[in-house]
Amino acid sequence: MIILLRMAMRKRRSEWTLQDETELLENWESRSNDLRKAKRNAHIYQEISMEMGRRYTAEEIHCKVKNLTKKYREEKSKIDPFGGSPSVWKHYQAVHRIMGTTAVNSALYMKTDSLMSIRKQRSEWTLPDEIELLEKWEARSHDLRKAKRNAHIYREIAMEMGRRYTAEEVHCKVKNLTKKYREEKSKIDPSGGSPSVWKHYQAVQRIIGSTAVNSALYVKTDSLYSPTSSMPSPSSPFPSPQLPSPSPPLPSPSSSSASMQSPTARKRNYNGEMVKLIKQQTQILKTIAEESKLVNQEMIGAILEQNRITEKLSTLMEKISEKLGF
């Protein structure tokens, strides 16, 4: 019974749409050289399956590739070698480009190999290119977080960078930067320690802070730190903020403008700022609850840290009020 259900589910799932076929052709074309050279290519079809969101299994993708290849050869056999009507099959040109890199034509092999050698040389990322990618990545981080299929976003980034790198190379570089950031972050003592010396740590920190984990909390943390920048907390795990604060900084009690205000006015200003911060925190938590249904352990820890910072800020405000004689 279970086997029959699995077969039925597979039959329903194996109905390929035109959009899925087009996406498969793009992934197949980008991996055609790997498929040609690999003696065992099951892992490549598994990777293509992952890139397509696992909507199809590796076996289904392999079967679809074979069917497309068979259909292409049938259509090609119908064409008169001395000139005739071209094939009207919608995928003929796409498969023809892919089959042009396989064993059909050895001359095209040499061209493909030369293109691959150029790509290998081009895939060495320079520091200016890395900085440019970080800027593009940060600008599109919101789109990448919300998109279920983001291959087109990496293609757009590749185009914006002048096609010096392919969409696959851009995607791979983003994954490598994310992995490096997490490794560096894991080395930092949460109770306070030496900051990372990796040159891209702060930039990736800003981007990761705007993704699915807790984007609003990172902005909120920056706003909470702005009024107390002259008194940093050694136990805080957050880095120095680089994003602009969403709320104006609280007036310093040592400033000349604050000294001209009466104690009642200063207390009113502090209370007003506290109310604003609490309202912003509430709105941020509501936004997180609406946007993310998958609450993981990291989200919970960030919320607890947020509450801890709020408590510390409240305690700090009380101490300031006591010193000012409120």
From TrEMBL:
One Pfam family recorded for the sequence: Myb_DNA-bind_4
Coiled-coil residue spans: 18-78
Region (Disordered): 225-270
InterPro entries, alphabetized: Myb/SANT-like_DNA-bd_dom_prot (IPR026095), Myb_DNA-bind_4 (IPR044822)
A GO biological-process term: positive regulation of DNA-templated transcription
Keywords: Coiled coil
Keyword field contains Coiled coil: yes
Compositionally biased intervals (Pro residues): 234-252
Recorded GO CC terms: nuclear body
Keyword Lipid biosynthesis: no
Residue stretches of biased makeup (Low complexity): 253-264
Ranges for domain Myb/SANT-like DNA-binding: 13-98, 122-206
Name this polypeptide is given: Uncharacterized protein LOC105228818 isoform X1
